[in-house]
């Protein structure tokens, strides 16, 4: 049993037995379930092996952002771990149902979980969990970031695809351990550095760097997740100025010597980096505020 503070609207759970095809029992493809009751089998391979993929979608004033890009990425992650393709129409319907069933709030975090399912069945388990977003305001105001070694080179996606660089898998214990290490070092978050010296991404975010009029991010081919937020900002910048965000391998000095850097993600939005380890970075508050608006879908 879980209980929730009476001050915070209750989360919503939607089970999606039809996520990879019509349910065997002929029942509905998805339905609301009791979020406070146990729902996951102890033999689900996500519980025993961390074996599954997921997405986190932000919804602002009830409107989700980038649903299709998120679910297309879910399908790509599923393919990378040889899971059956999710039925996107069903999952879109379940995401919409979760948002509709939730009390109206300004910021909702909608998780889409897709696991290898109960051992031996071959049928993925899927659920949608919508809850009030964490308070990201302190991050959006600016944060210290620690550089941590990821222990893999930028060629790992080509040389060692079984390490799943670039897939959004449910084995995030390493990512969370990195954030705890950053906190021990007095920082709020992490920028991973590849063993060949190039900067990569955060444990749950994409790096964006400004150099003069140019905006740069880590190439997806370097083994980072293809971010939906950086894609939205790139489309916005391209429409506005004719050039979007360019992919380029960058060193630590490229970031510390830049005109500003952010960590981006769908629920955190754009969080400016004030310090990278000891190095102080410039922060453009007006530009950051505009990025937040783009990422909430307001402009
Ligand atoms: N990189 C990693 C490893 C992530 O886990 C995430 C999101 O959680 C991102 C980047 C940012 O992706 P998006 O902008 O699609 O939220």
Average pLDDT score: 97
Largest sheet: 8 strands, mixed
The overall number of domains is 2
Principal-axis shape equals globular
Query: What is the assigned CATH homologous superfamily of the largest domain?
Result: D-amino Acid Aminotransferase, subunit A, domain 2
The span between the termini is 41 Å
Secondary-structure content class: alpha+beta
Helix content: 25-40%
Number of strands: 14
The SSE string, one letter per element, is EEHEEHHEEHEHHEEEHEHEEEH
Keywords: Lyase
Protein name: Aminodeoxychorismate lyase
Pfam families: Aminotran_4
GO molecular function: lyase activity
Task: Explain this structure.
The chain has 299 residues and is α+β, with helices and mostly antiparallel strands. The protein folds into two domains: 12-132, D-amino Acid Aminotransferase, Chain A, domain 1 (2-Layer Sandwich); 137-295, D-amino Acid Aminotransferase, subunit A, domain 2 (D-amino Acid Aminotransferase, Chain A, domain 2, Alpha-Beta Barrel). The protein contains nine helices and 14 strands. The strands form two sheets. Strands 7, 8, 9, 10, 11, 12, 13 and 14 form an eight-stranded mixed sheet that branches. It has a six-stranded antiparallel sheet with strand order 2-1-6-5-3-4. The longest helix has 14 residues, at 67-80. The mean pLDDT is 97. Bound molecules: pyridoxal-5'-phosphate (PLP). Pyridoxal-5'-phosphate (PLP) binds at residues 56, 168, 201, 204-206, 225, 227-229, 264-266.
């Amino acid at each position: 049993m879980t209980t929730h503070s009476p001050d915070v609207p209750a989360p919503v759970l939607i089970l999606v037995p039809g996520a990879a095809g019509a349910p065997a029992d002929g029942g509905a493809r998805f339905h609301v379930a009791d979020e406070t009751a146990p729902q996951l089998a102890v033999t689900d391979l996500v519980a025993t092996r961390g074996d599954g993929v997921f997405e986190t979608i932000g919804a602002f004033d009830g409107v989700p952002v980038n649903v299709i890009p998120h679910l297309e990425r879910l399908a790509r992650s599923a393919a990378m771990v040889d899971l059956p393709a999710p039925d996107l129409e069903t999952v879109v319907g379940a995401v919409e149902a979760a948002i509709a069933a939730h009390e109206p709030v300004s910021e909702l975090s909608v998780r889409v979980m897709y696991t290898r399912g109960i051992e031996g069945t071959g049928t993925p388990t899927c659920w949608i969990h919508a809850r009030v977003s964490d308070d990201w305001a302190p991050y959006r105001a600016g944060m210290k970031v620690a550089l941590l070694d990821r222990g893999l080179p930028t060629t790992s996606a080509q040389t060692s695809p079984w390490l799943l660089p670039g897939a959004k898998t449910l084995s995030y214990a390493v990512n969370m351990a990195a954030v705890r290490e950053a906190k021990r070092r007095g920082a709020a978050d992490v920028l991973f550095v590849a063993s060949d010296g190039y900067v990569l991404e955060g444990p749950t975010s994409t790096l964006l760097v400004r150099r003069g009029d140019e905006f740069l991010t880590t190439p997806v081919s370097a083994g980072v997740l293809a971010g939906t937020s950086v894609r939205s900002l790139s489309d916005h910048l391209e429409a506005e100025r004719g050039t979007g965000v360019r992919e380029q391998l960058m060193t630590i000095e490229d970031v510390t010597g830049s005109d500003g850097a952010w960590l981006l993600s769908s629920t955190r939005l754009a969080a400016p980096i004030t310090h990278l380890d000891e190095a102080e970075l410039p922060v453009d508050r007006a530009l950051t505020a505009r990025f937040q608006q783009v990422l909430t879908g307001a402009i």
